[in-house]
Structure formats: C-alpha cells, structure tokens
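Appendix B. Raw example, untouched.
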Amino acid sequence: MGEDGFHLLKDGRRETTIRWIDVRTVRTYKHGFFAYDMICLAFDVGEGEPVEIWEAMVDFMIVAERMREEFPQIPGDWHWVVMLPAFETNDRILWRRYHTSGCAVQHGEAP
C-alpha cells in the first residue's frame, strides 16, 4: 500500500497497481457461497475488467480504510449495508467519478 494507491500481489510478485487518481468507480457486493458470503470491493480504472478484492485477502480492511480516506463521500456504514441481509448480492456503487476535472459523487446506489 502506497500513498497513491495499492498493489495486488500474486505469488509474491506485483500483479496489478491501482492508483487512487485512476479510479473511476468503486462498487461493493457479495459473492454467496454455500455457508457464507464474501464481501468484495471492485475498482474500475477504465482499463479492462474492474479490479476486485475480497474480504478474505490479507489487506482488505487496510485498503477499505484507505479508500474511505481517499473518497470521504463513501458512507461510513458501507460494510454493514452490503453485509445485510445475508446471502443477497447487495450490489452498490459507493463512489463514481463523473468529470476528469473534478468529482461529482453519488453513493449507495444500485448499479
């Protein structure tokens, strides 16, 4: 985790770098498994598929905390909103960049 973003590692090597300034949309949702849900964050940087991180990943909460510092418009209760009810996707857009010169934000909306 750096000041300007975070890195995803695969087999101990840097696979992807996400810079906060490049993020266009932040979404949250759950993947449902037989006996549990997995909360995810997806960062769209405009190149290919959004980069997804799962709550089971080592630094998930560190990235989530830093994300809220970087995008303070994201509601403080976003984690609870996606968590409940159980076994529902609860897909929400937490933050969206509308203009390249500045930010107009909507949060908590279903995609």
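End of appendix B.
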